[in-house]
Amino acid sequence: MALYETASYKVIKKISKHIELRKYPTFYMATTTVKLDNKYTNGFSEVFNYISGNNENNQKISMTTPVISTTNEDSLTTSFVIPSKFENKPPKPSNKNVTITEVKDGTFLIMKFSGKWTKSNFDKYDSILLEYIKSNNYSILSQRYILRYQPPFIPAFFRRNEIMYRVVEEAL
Asked: What's the gap between Cα 50 and its chain centre?
């Protein structure tokens, strides 16, 4: 039995050991945007405080995986997936810097890898996935998502990480 609930998905096609095409149902995330740090870990405490009870109901919410990040020049958006038991009614955050975002159901291409949480590592696997996307005529509909499944105290070689893009379903 898994320690944490993981965002649900269905593998549509296993392309290689590291690349999959997945279908995700609609899910919700608690999200904050902060200044980018070189380990992509800023913002964690704000969304952690939300699940620890800093919300309108003072309700503790179970931790889930993955932690999802996106970047934009010098900012980092860090998000926790809201557990499925909340369906479409997660409690409102008390902190104005935390928002609830809906990710609509869709098709995503992902690249799985292990290793350190560094810009160079993320960019390395992003390049491989982008080359696959380009050579197979997929159209990207989202920015790059970085997914991290383990806490930072887990040795890097044991960490499960992913790069993910929403793609046009017609390309399938």
From this structure: 17
Q: CA of 50: how far to CAs of 32, 81, 155, in Å?
A: 10, 12, 27
In whole angstroms, give the CA distance from residue 133 to residue 161. 19
Q: Does pTM top 0.85 for this prediction?
A: yes
Tokens for 71, please give them: 């970047």
Give the Cα separation of 149 and 107 in Å (integer).
20
- Helix (H) or strand (E) segment spanning residue 48: helix 44-51
Handedness of CA 1, 84, 57, 99 (dihedral sign): positive
Q: What is the pLDDT of residues 54-100, one digit of tens each?
A: 999 999 999 999 999 999 888 999 999 999 999 778 999 999 999 99
